[in-house]
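If you are new to this repository, start here. Below is one unmodified record pulled from the training split, so you can see the exact layout before writing a loader.
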Amino acid sequence: MTTPANHRAAAVGFAAMAIIASACASTAADTTTTSTTVEPSTTTTATTLAETTTTAPLETVAVSAVGEDIPEELLVALGDTLSWRVDQRNTTPPIPEGLAAPLLELDLDIPDTLVVTANVVDLEGGSVAILVGPTGDVYAAADEGTGWQIVGVDAAKGGAWFGGEPRLVLVLGSDARPGQNQQRYRADSVHLLAARASDGTGTILGFPRDSYVPSPFGSMKLSSVMSGRGPEVITDVVGDEWDLPIEGYVVTGFKGFEGLMASLGNLPIDLPRSIPAQPWWPAFRAGAQTLSPQRVLEYSRTRKGVPGGDFTRSGNQGVVMLAMLRLIQTSDVLAAPTFLTILEDHAWTDLSPTAQIQLAATAFTLDPDRVENVVLPGKLGTAGGGSVVFLGDDADAMIADLADDGLLNR
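And here is the target side for that same chain:
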């Protein structure tokens, strides 16, 4: 079980959010040239043909960085990776499975001497970095205790790879109040984030919190699965029920969410519908506006008097996620590691540092207009004496469709 990030015991992204692509370059092999020479004879004017063979010199890339406190080992790791990229007679670098082919295919600008700008931060479990070349090529790196590795790339000329896709992460909002354990209360919101760095697309799939689901503890509301058990359990239940390869979770509560928003700043957002006033806070008008952190939380929580109830609220929470993605993208990709430290201060995750920096970098490849925000359909009913939502065949089909490629091909 992870602990709060500000104690350095755990590290979303949000996704926050999650994604992947290919990369291109020619393979340099041993090359030989055969030349014909004319050798003079001491006794005759006849010529003798001789063949000589020469081997092309090994190509390498030297990497340096602008700024201070950039680990030399990180620059060596990038240099070794790019040296192999331009000339595969060099030693194969320790890169993640799946990165080799994209790295060779992406059109990258790789001079013999590369000067990068870098941002390096420490997270619970390791260190992560983003390095950017002078023409905008982006490299993600991580060190989880065994040395720095390049774990993703985004070519300025198009195409990216930040892990196999689709990336599937469960984003959970706990309804724990300040002073309560934010990981052990009900899941007030449940969203599955699917992200694809290869083409900048993705899906935010909302689960009605009252969805009635089977679990090892008996059938119950999805929101109740996390209560007293933790985010690992609800992640396993969702993954097992729909055979989803969910790689991890991000969870925060009311206090954590408001703190996260306070760190990011006021949120520009375009509300698709007006929201009536509640006993505890005023109404929201439809249209473009900027909300304070407290108002973002209030908007995300409102369901009373809203047509569609929890279904609409889940969709509204997806609207907030997309607005946060747009806000994050107003910064440079070099800020991605810094956003992870902010997230670590206000949320919990079981994602490794490698997965975190890959997903953070992926957030900068996504086109918010091509990320679909949708809520699973269901029917209201009763079970165990309470009101629940029954998810039917349509919901199962949507989840299966999402698992295939991260998109809803409707």
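Two things worth knowing about this chain: Confidence is low (pLDDT under 50) at residues 1-53. Residues 310-328 form the longest helix (19 residues).
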